[in-house]
Amino acid sequence: MQYKIEFTKQAAKEFLKLPASVRDTIIKKLKFLAADPGAINNNIKKLQGVEDCYRLRIGDYRVIYRIINLKVVIEIIKIGHRQDIYK
After folding, report:
1. pTM for this structure?
2. Structural domain of 16
3. Is residue 73 part of a domain?
4. For labelling alongside 57, which of 14, 42, 71, 85 has CA 20 to 30 A away?
5. Integer Rg of the chain from CA
6. Is residue 86 in some structural domain?
7. Is 81 within 8 Å of 61 (Cβ atoms)?
């Protein structure tokens, strides 16, 4: 089952500020994530202290997201460089 990817307003703004090559890489990784959110090779970790939030590592960038199984949606919460994403 293919999940639908949805961006919050903040994540969409952050995504558009990234360089085009980074955006392309993130889009490719999000397509793999949407196809199988539980795949081990997706470089995913569950975030501690936040319920149902995960991080996807893409080089020096991180995508923070939440899986909403009832709606079959992956909600992208935040996107940014690894130095800034957890602040």
Report:
1. 0.90
2. 4-81
3. yes
4. 71
5. 12
6. no
7. yes
